[in-house]
């Protein structure tokens, strides 16, 4: 399900390539703010919070029951070997890492995006157009709410656990308008014979938001 905000804005976006992501300490080279973390693992999805301890060590916080379901010991980080894709993100930054194969060996690489408002004093060509969109998550009932995390589920058994909203009593979900969404920033590029054909060239996560 998709609730599109349909608002094109011009922003300044900086991209850095991550050639080889070998351990979580590398996150501190890019991220500067407390963030959310989404792991797409071989055996499921793990969502939590990320902070930087002294700008040296990556510190994650996950729901312990969710970790046990994925065979991860509470207090431990996911094994990088089993990460298909990882997003560490906040309102202005995202580190995206994915698993790939190079010369017959499995490795992880990625890209880092850092955005800010476009300033007309920026050099010509420094801006990019982006459209913000809300991607509605599955979950119309609250399964549990504990230690700053919420599990939402469907009658058919689908469920997802993520950090709860830290205001207004937390996220609210139902079969109507109250839903949780992940806000994305979708970057527009122009191509075609005359450079007039617009299409999305990249996308990053921004926040988890309440829809009502």
The number of distinct helices, counting runs of at least 4 residues, comes to: 1
Name the poorly predicted regions. Answer: none
Rounded mean pLDDT is 90
The oligomeric state of the chains shown is single chain
Instruction: List the domain count as a whole number.
Output: 1
Radius of gyration: 18 Å
Strand order of the largest sheet: 4-3-2-5-6-7-1-8-12-13
How does the overall form come out from the CA principal axes?
globular
Q: Portion of residues in helices?
A: under 10%
Main sheet attributes: strand count, strand direction, barrel closure: 10 strands, antiparallel
| Structural class category | mainly beta
Q: What is the strand tally?
A: 13
SSE order, as H and E?
EEEEHEEEEEEEEE
Strand content: over 45%
């Amino acid at each position: 399900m998709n609730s599109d905000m349909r608002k094109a804005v011009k922003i300044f976006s900086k991209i850095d390539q991550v050639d080889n992501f070998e351990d979580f300490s590398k996150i501190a080279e890019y991220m500067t703010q407390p963030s959310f973390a989404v792991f797409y693992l071989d055996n499921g999805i793990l969502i939590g919070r990320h902070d930087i301890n002294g700008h040296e060590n990556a510190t994650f916080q996950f729901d312990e029951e969710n970790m046990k379901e994925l065979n991860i010991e509470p207090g431990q980080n996911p094994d990088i070997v089993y990460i298909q894709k990882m997003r560490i993100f906040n309102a202005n930054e995202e580190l995206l890492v994915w698993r790939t194969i190079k010369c017959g060996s499995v490795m992880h690489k990625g890209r880092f995006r850092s955005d800010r408002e476009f300033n007309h004093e920026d050099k010509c060509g420094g801006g990019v157009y982006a459209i913000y969109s809300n991607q509605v998550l599955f979950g119309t009932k609250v399964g549990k709410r504990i230690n700053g995390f919420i599990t939402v589920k469907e009658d058919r058994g689908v469920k997802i656990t993520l950090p709860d909203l830290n205001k207004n009593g937390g996220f609210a979900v139902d079969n109507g308008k109250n839903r949780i969404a992940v806000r994305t920033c979708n970057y527009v590029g122009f191509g075609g014979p005359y450079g007039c054909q617009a299409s999305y060239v990249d996308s990053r996560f921004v926040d988890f938001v309440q829809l009502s």
